[in-house]
Design goal:
This protein has seven helices and six strands, in the order αββαβαβαβαβαα. It starts with 15 loop residues before the first helix and ends with a helix. It is flat, with a radius of gyration of 20 Å. The chain has one domain: 3-Layer(aba) Sandwich (Rossmann fold). The chain is of the alpha/beta class and 196 residues long. Bound molecules: iron/sulfur cluster. The site of iron/sulfur cluster has 11 residues, from helix 3 and helix 5.
Length: 196
Amino acid sequence: MSRPVRFNIHPKQADINAAVSMSEAPAGYPGEGFFTTNLASVVGLARKNSLWPLPFATSCCGIEFMATMGSHYDFARFGAERVGFSPRQCDLLMVMGTIAKKMAPVVKQVYLQMAEPRWVMAVGACACSGGIFDTYSVLQGIDQVVPVDVYVPGCPPRPEAILDGFMRIQELVGKESLRRRGSEQYKGLLESYGIQ
Ligand code: SF4
């Protein structure tokens, strides 16, 4: 049996008002003409909806990221369409692909050049654990050189998985305490990677 062919000759008019969704307001106290909440919630709300990713794509997983940026999956919906290649301006390092040991110091240098607060996402089996390349030349996970916040499994992960990982980063960013980056625990984490 042949598959029915669909022609898009009578496209439905999109209901723009119904399609637009708003960010949820943080927990607080609303009143007539005012809204009170705590500073960390407002900063978290702003940060999580304006992340600037730095795609460090070395192989096939990077192609999945390109699909994620395209109109179908539309990464821009999350306020993250401003992909940058300057570590100084970006706050989310997305490592996608096989990282050779020779490349590891470069990943670390890019991380060091990013200003705080910064987050890291390991996208795909290679970035998470070396993937199928259990060899002398491949880094067995980028968490050997930089701290990772979210791991996205898959070889390669589908764009939906990348979006899911990104939403988990947003959750972390939205809930992060403003004091975390100055805490002894965070300094200890960086010191364990040899970062002052
Ligand atoms: S995880 Fe798979 S798809 Fe992604 S870079 Fe490694 S080999 Fe390629």
